Amino acid sequence: MARIAWITDSTAYLEPAFAQEKGIHIVPLSVVFGDRSYREGEEIDEATFYRLVRESPAPPTTSQPSLGDFVALYERLKAEYDVGIAVHLSGGISGTVETSRQGAAMVGFPVHVIDAKITTYPMAFILKAGIRLAEAGRPVEEIVRHMEDVRDRMRALFLVRDLSYLHRGGRLNMAQYVVGSLLQVKPILHFVDGRIVPLEKVRTEKKAVARVFELFDEAVRNVPRARVAIIHANVPEEALRWQARLGERYDHLDVVVSTFGPVIATHVGEGTIGFGWYPLREGEA
């Protein structure tokens, strides 16, 4: 059986214990405040990030791993493993996935690099699906096909509360930002072809939350089973309320709570919350 190296980047926001147990290699993206760069998961945690957001005169930016980061990793893994499987955040929002491919090619280490076409915990779902098959002794090609199939079933809905982050990221122009703020518009975002785009714009917080649950219900109520992540940006109590609400309504969902870590929170803003999920096929573990 091939010795598989598992690789992802920090925006999967994997549980540290799971990553350590499975020996997953995590390449960090970075958050930049002024002239100081912090490697996500290594040099900055969420509490420090939100403190710096409040204290810094200018908003943070982000940067992807360098080609050198991947070359160094793959040089090391080449000596220990037969093949690698890497899952990275969408190529539609970051160049990380392409840099990973370039690094593997430069080193000559065979890595199946999967563009998740999404970010945050859905990446962990994809990675875990592959690990389950590997532990069942399935061949690498079958594992990769299954991971890509899980990727293609993945969906997400996110409710953004602070429009200033979307404005700074170029997803709202100034007029949309001003009018949206005045009218209390709350965008509901999703992924299309690996890019974050508005699905609907709903007036008032209460109606927007209700609409997210309505859209989610339409997606999951008729599937036999689904894995779901509730993902939040520094609103843990609300995330737990959402989890309890799902528990009261559904008995066929496997639900976890995760976060938008510093890199992704830089772009969506504090208070953002939503779902990432995929339906399971009949008999799928």
Automatic annotation (TrEMBL):
Coiled-coil features, chain-numbered ranges: none
UniProt KW Membrane keyword: no
Gene3D superfamilies the record matches: 3.30.1180.10, 3.40.50.10170
Domain of life: Bacteria
Record keyword Ribonucleoprotein present: no
Alphabetical list of SUPFAM superfamilies matching this protein: DAK1/DegV-like
GO-annotated molecular function: lipid binding
Keywords recorded for this protein, A-Z: Lipid-binding
InterPro entries: DegV (IPR003797), DegV_C (IPR043168), DegV_domain_contain (IPR050270)
Name the UniProt record assigns to this protein: DegV family protein
